[in-house]
Amino acid sequence: MKHSALCRPLQGLFLTLLLALLSSHVFAQEAPLTEREALQAQVLAGVCASCHGTEGRLSGVIPAIAQRPASVLESQLLAFKRGETPHTTVMERLARGYTDEELALLARYFAQPQAYRPTQP
Ligand code: HEC
Predict the structure, then answer these.
(1) Residue nearest to atom 24 of ligand 1 (CA)
(2) CB 13 near ligand 1, within 6 Å
(3) Closest Cα to atom 42, ligand 1: which residue?
(4) Predicted local confidence at residue 46, as pLDDT
(5) What is the per-residue pLDDT across 49-106, written as a single tens digit (0 to 9) for each?
(6) Is the pLDDT of residue 33 over 80?
(7) Per its UniProt record, what InterPro entries does this chain match (predicted)?
(8) Are the CB atoms for 44 and 94 separated by under 8 Å?
(9) CB of 50 sitting under 6 A from ligand 1
(10) What per-residue confidence (pLDDT) applies to 4?
């Protein structure tokens, strides 16, 4: 019993890494966001900015997320949502509030070179 309780977080980590590897392979080519997708993503990403910085680039205790490959961000977010990432503070609860499609969109959004420009004219 004790053994499996210890292994579970490790399994989650392993799955996350495996997912990241697999999806980065499959989705190596990123399509740019359409105007509509970019608008939707900006609304969804507003809440992320309060912790991850306005462009997802804040450095410090909270990890920066901007401009990482979308496939990596997506698998991290899905792993949070499914409770597969051990020792999270807020991301597990947060990620549950989004559909898988919204998480994929957020991942593509933060992966862009010019991620999150709230004051664009
Ligand atoms: C209340 C603060 C807060 C908000 C809001 C927030 N995050 Fe996070 N995020 C964190 C913290 C803290 C971590 C580290 C994992 C943990 O403790 O949950 C993290 C980790 C992450 C990671 C993994 C980064 C890594 O290298 O491990 C990603 C990806 C991420 N967040 C994306 C997002 C997205 C997308 C949003 C908006 C939907 C968001 N976060 C909103 C605090 C926040």
Answers:
(1) 63
(2) no
(3) 51
(4) 86
(5) 888 876 666 667 788 888 889 999 999 999 999 999 999 999 999 999 999 999 999 9
(6) yes
(7) Cyt_c-like_dom, Cyt_c-like_dom_sf, Cytochrome_c_Oxidase_Subunit
(8) no
(9) yes
(10) 54
- CA 61 to CA 42: how far, in whole Å? 24
Give residue 119's pLDDT.
44
Q: For residues 40-55, give the mean pLDDT.
A: 84
CATH code of the region 2-111: 1.10.760.10
CA 58/CA 102 separation, integer angstroms = 22
Domain ranges of the chain: 2-111
Q: What is the pLDDT of residue 121?
A: 44
- Sequence-ordered alpha helix ranges (H) in 27-121: 35-52, 70-81, 91-95, 100-111
Residue nearest to atom 34 of ligand 1 (CA): 48
**Burial of 118 from C-beta contacts in 10 A (0-12 / 13-18 / 19+):** exposed
Instruction: Report the separation in Å between the CA atom of 1 and the middle of ligand 1, taken as the mean of its atom positions.
Output: 31
Q: Which of 82, 90, 101, 108 to mutate to test the pocket of ligand 1 (most atoms within 8 A of CB)?
A: 90
20 token code pair:
């990241």
